[in-house]
Design brief:
The complex is a heterodimer of chains A (64) and B (946). Chain A has 1 helix and 4 strands. Chain A is α+β, with helices and mostly antiparallel strands and 64 residues long. A two-stranded parallel sheet of chain A has the order 1-2. In chain A, strands 3-4 form a two-stranded antiparallel ribbon. Chain B is built from 25 helices and 48 strands. In chain B, the strands form 16 sheets. Chain B has a 5-stranded parallel sheet with strand order 11-18-12-13-14. Chain B folds into 5 domains: 168 residues, FAD/NAD(P)-binding domain, CATH 3.50.50; 128 residues, 3-Layer(aba) Sandwich (Rossmann fold), CATH 3.40.50; 181 residues, 3-Layer(bba) Sandwich (FAD/NAD(P)-binding domain), CATH 3.50.50.60; 148 residues, FAD/NAD(P)-binding domain, CATH 3.50.50.60; 57 residues, Alpha-Beta Plaits. The chains are: A alpha+beta (64), B alpha/beta (946). Strand 1 of chain A pairs parallel with strand 9 of chain B, so a sheet runs across the interface.
Chain lengths: 64, 946
């Protein structure tokens, strides 16, 4: 990782707090468009509540 | 999840919390504390030996205590990172100083009992809060008996009961005695729409839908005889396709819907686990019924921990403990540079959370765009070796996966078998082929032995192929010269009781992989440059918001509006449900659009043709000045919707009957008729939730309640009636509903088969309806009748066809995935937002617009699109021109070339799914990496060995 910003402009990284479905989506969208992301999760793994759900409406897709 | 864990530019910090935030937007310093995991993440290979040996069993939080886990544990089997952690609160070593079983048995020496908490600081430009919600704890109320009666569970516990990976493997049982229930009741609004201290006045917005889903799935699992009853006050199925699901649940699946709030629960008899429910039914009669299991549909709340976090971060909360945001900047928190998404900003469902998540990314990217690419890194690989003239030299790596494979399969026998196969020049057994040190070794072995094909016999390519392909790249080999044999998931796991058969199957799987591998060809990927410009269709609020964000992110935008003005339907709105002035906001937004040099606005313009594909679209627009062609890389469709012009209730025949938008206009003009009117009525669901429009228009309940309150501002003595089917004031809109009832607005429910009857009485109108409490007909004479007319789609088939995107049965644009890709289309490079997707309130349209901008920016920022790799190619000589492939392709990647008379694949759009190859009657499509020659070789090899 290299820092090329001169110190005047904004920092090109973002802190995302929470590794549930929302945090993961934010992290991926930012990282996929040129920003460095710190994804912070308080538990031992990401996934959040959605990973606890069985199937989801309307397609009855598995929540995983 | 796996993508997050593997992404080069996402640093995943687990067991970590935010302690402090200093600095300002664009230049924050964040102090983080990282709790000890006691397991070295670099060394842990997730084999599970530690948990097997750990003697300490504790309640598993993931299964909400319905199952046990060990003190050293994986949060759940698919978690990312797939690394164990020790819970120091329950671990015997941390209590008594002895045990260390995990340390003793860990094959990779990953246990570190000396691990310490770390505190460190990072520099960031922005912060996004995506902390979610806490489930409401029904134990705080005596009435539900939760915790006392084993027959009462929460809806989240019921999710685990239903789950195939849950404690009962998806068998619907009562946890305590494993009885298969014959009757299950769901009680709605537990902790929501409840003014008792400890509960929440707001509607949690998601429970009606999940209860229906649970009831339907429970009936699928337990059989149609299961009596599934949902006790509710209003059925709030206001989202896209939700009402259809509700109708299906009631009429096809046979779920019972009981409109009632249950007032008490008690054991059916002193020694029974069954629960007696007492309630007052629709007719006002006292009823009681006994159920085997009662599921409490618990709401969503902001946790204490979240409130503390926001206090530390200096982020303001609303009255319910969620972050406070404006409707016009729905993902922007009170502190500049801090954004919020998902349930942290109020209760919401998965698609809306995902949408806001992308919106938060857009909002942050808009602020930080000068620093884009300043901190990210990219991978570089050594040049690829040309192997085209070499004989196949195959290396086979057989993985023990700790004991996951070797506990069943005789790995040495499999390795010996691999040595006997044609073209195999090198075979190795690994304890863990996926470990980092094995990757380095693999790279060396490939170079040293001149391998030009690699087969790994281990686990699933879904999780591990990218890792090994990267190793191929590092060793200077094309990554498509790699093949996996899944001897774990498809073998040792399923044949755990039959080691001999499993070993034979492992040999067969390796034989097949080697046979295919010898025929693998390097596949090339090309980067095609794209036009880093966006085109937004529709100049309403959503289109304007999308255009503005993309411009802030640094990309030129063409905003195409068919009328002469920007703003769309929002021009007719007065205020948001929170009372914010829509007109003033629109003026500011419009000014910013016109000041923004990157935005070109095309008014009175229509789209007449679209060519090209992601990265390189050419859209032709017709304006008063003639036609113009716009080159653009992405398109955002934000064409909106319109208010239905009713044919019911004397609309258009009597001047006293108006729609909601016309009513807003009267309020805006301070029409004297409003002040003169003494009695007014609103009729809800006019044109919505009917056979030909079987959806809820989502905004009208709140709109009417808000309107009623505004009328009371004009004349506090006015008599106001709201005739409704279900009041759907979801979220904190419920507070308005409550306020309206308190201030004397009369709410009266009608059913679809007994609609109000409106007749003209001179200048007035007579409205007859049935009072649902008195159970008898009533009539009121009103001065003004306001119809909550449906929102309907523009049914723009031609636009949909030009961008090759689908419309659903109601005419709304159909997204790629209703939950996980709510603003994408299956057709790459085209995105959607606003009411063209489904009726929605203003703040949701803005969030969706920002989300579409974020998704579009992931395409635009790359500067190129990938073509080739694992794609299909159609051999023109074999193509008979039947176009079956064109129709089966789910990505619109195949087009028929009229003059050549053959189908052709666009390699940028092709995802390599193989649907065309399977459908073609002449075997014309060749799926690279899975061609027929390779597949036949696999089949032949295994038949020969059998």
């Amino acid at each position: 990782m290299s820092r090329t910003d001169s110190g005047n402009g904004p920092n090109g990284s973002v802190l995302v707090v929470g590794g549930g479905i929302a945090g993961m989506q934010t992290a991926l969208d930012l990282a996929d468009s040129g920003f460095y992301v710190y994804l912070v999760e308080e538990s031992a793994g990401i996934g959040g509540v959605m990973a606890q759900l069985d199937k989801t409406f309307p397609t009855n897709d598995c929540a995983m | 999840m796996v993508e997050c864990g593997r992404h080069l530019n996402i640093k995943l910090l687990t067991l970590t919390e935010v302690a402090e935030l200093t600095g300002r937007a664009g230049d924050f310093t964040v102090t983080l504390t990282k709790k000890p995991r006691y397991v070295d993440m670099d060394k842990c290979i997730g084999c599970g030996v530690c948990a097997e040996k750990c003697p300490r069993k504790v309640d598993d939080e993931y299964n909400l205590g319905l199952a046990k886990r060990k003190a050293i544990y994986l949060k759940y089997s698919q978690t990312v990172p797939l690394k164990y952690a020790i819970d120091p609160v329950t671990c015997i070593y941390f209590k008594k100083g002895t045990c260390k079983a995990c340390e003793k048995f860990c094959p990779s020496g990953a246990i570190n009992l000396e691990d310490q908490e770390e505190r460190f600081a990072i520099q960031v430009g922005a912060v996004v809060l995506a902390t979610g919600f806490a489930p409401f704890n029904p134990g705080v109320f005596d009435t539900y008996g939760y915790g006392r009666y084993p027959g009462v569970v929460t809806s989240l516990e019921f999710e685990r009961i239903l789950s195939a990976s849950g404690p009962f493997e998806g068998h619907v049982v009562r946890p305590k005695d494993k009885k298969e229930p014959e009757k299950i009741a769901w009680l709605q609004c537990v902790g929501s729409r409840d003014l008792k201290p400890g509960a929440h006045s707001y509607c949690s917005g998601v429970c009606c839908m999940y209860a229906i889903k649970q009831a339907v799935i429970a009936k699928e699992h337990a059989g149609a005889d299961l009596d599934a009853a949902i006790f509710f006050m209003d059925m709030r199925t206001y989202g896209k396709d939700f009402d259809r699901y509700y109708q299906k649940a009631e009429h096809e699946a046979g779920v019972r819907f009981v409109r009632s709030r249950v007032h008490s629960l008690s054991p059916a008899s002193p020694d029974s686990l069954d629960i007696r429910l007492e309630y007052v039914d629709d007719q006002g009669k006292l009823q009681e019924e006994i159920f085997d299991l009662v599921v409490l549909s618990i709401g969503l709340e902001a946790s204490e921990q979240f409130r503390n976090l926001c206090q530390r971060l200096d982020v303001k909360l609303d009255g319910h403990g969620f972050t406070s945001t404006s409707s016009f900047a729905p993902v922007t928190a009170s502190r500049p540079g801090v954004y919020v998404c998902g349930a942290a900003a109020g209760p919401k469902d998965i698609p809306y959370s995902v949408m806001e998540a992308s919106a938060a990314a857009a909002a942050a990217a808009g602020e930080l765009s000068p620093a884009r690419f300043s901190l990210v890194s990219t991978k570089t690989y050594p040049p690829e070796r040309d192997v085209s003239r070499e004989e196949p030299r195959i290396g086979v790596f057989v993985c023990n996966c700790g004991i996951n494979i070797s506990g069943v399969v005789n790995v040495s026998e499999v390795a010996a078998h691999a040595r006997s196969l044609p073209h195999v020049v090198y075979v190795e057994e690994n304890l863990y082929t996926c470990s980092q040190d094995t990757q380095d070794k693999l790279t060396e072995v490939i170079r040293e032995h001149g391998l030009n094909r690699v087969v790994v016999a281990a686990c699933s390519p879904r999780t591990h192929e990218p890792l090994f392909q990267e190793t191929m790249n590092n060793a200077g080999l094309n990554k498509y010269l790699f093949e996996m044999a899944n001897i774990r998931n498809q073998d040792s796991w399923v044949h755990a009781q039959e080691p001999e058969i499993a070993t034979r199957k492992a040999k067969d799987l390796v034989t097949m992989a080697v046979a295919k591998s010898a025929l693998l060809n390097p596949l090339q990927e090309a980067d095609l440059p794209i036009t880093q410009t966006a085109l937004v269709v529709g100049g309403g609020l959503a289109g304007m918001a999308a255009a503005l964000n993309l411009a802030q992110q640094g990309y030129p935008v063409h905003l195409v509006e068919k009328t002469g003005v920007l703003g769309g339907n929002a021009r007719q709105l007065l205020t948001t449900y929170r009372g914010e002035d829509v007109g003033a906001f629109l003026e500011r937004l419009e000014a910013r659009i016109f000041q923004e040099p990157r935005i070109t606005v095309h008014r009175q313009a229509s789209i007449t043709g679209v060519d090209g594909f992601v990265g390189n679209f050419k859209t032709t627009i017709a304006t008063g000045n003639g036609a113009a062609v716009i080159d653009h890389g992405v398109a955002v469709l934000a064409t909106g919707a319109k208010e239905y012009k009713p044919t019911e209730y004397l609309y258009g025949q009597h001047p006293g009957v108006i729609t909601q938008l016309e009513f807003d206009e009267m309020l805006r003009r301070r029409d004297p008729r409003l002040a003169q009117a003494q009695t007014m009525a609103f009729i809800q669901c006019v044109g919505s939730r009917e056979d030909h429009r079987p959806y809820c228009s989502k905004v009208c309940c709140t709109h009417s309640v808000k309107g009623a309150l505004e009328l009371l501002e004009v004349d506090p003595g006015a008599d106001i009636y709201v005739l409704y089917r279900d009041m759907r004031t979801y979220g904190d809109r419920e507070d308005l509903y409550h306020q309206a009832r308190n201030r004397g607005v009369i709410f009266n429910r009608y059913s679809r088969d007994k609609k109000p009857v409106v007749t003209a009485q001179g200048e007035k109108l007579r409205v007859e309806f049935r009072d649902h409490i008195l159970a008898r007909p009533l009539a009121v004479e009103v001065d003004l009748l306001i119809l909550a007319a449906a929102i309907e789609s523009h049914q723009d088939q031609s636009l949909a066809q030009m961008y090759r995107v689908p419309l659903d049965a109601d005419g709304w644009f159909l997204e790629a995935h209703q939950k996980l890709r709510p603003v994408d289309f299956a057709n790459d490079g085209v995105f959607l937002c606003g009411m063209a997707h489904y009726p929605k309130p203003l703040e949701e349209s803005i969030a969706q617009a920002q989300a579409a901008a974020a998704r579009a920016a992931t395409v635009l920022s790359k500067g190129t699109v990938k073509a080739g790799g694992l794609v299909s190619r159609i051999t023109p000589d074999f193509c008979c021109g039947c176009q079956i492939c064109v129709n089966v392709c789910p990505y619109q990647a195949i087009a028929f070339h009229d003059s050549l008379g053959v189908a052709q694949v666009n390699e940028v759009l092709c995802k390599g799914c193989g649907a065309c190859a399977a459908a073609c009657p002449c075997e014309a499509p060749v799926l690279l990496g899975f061609n027929n020659r390779q597949l036949y070789a696999q089949i032949r090899s295994v038949l020969r060995s059998a």
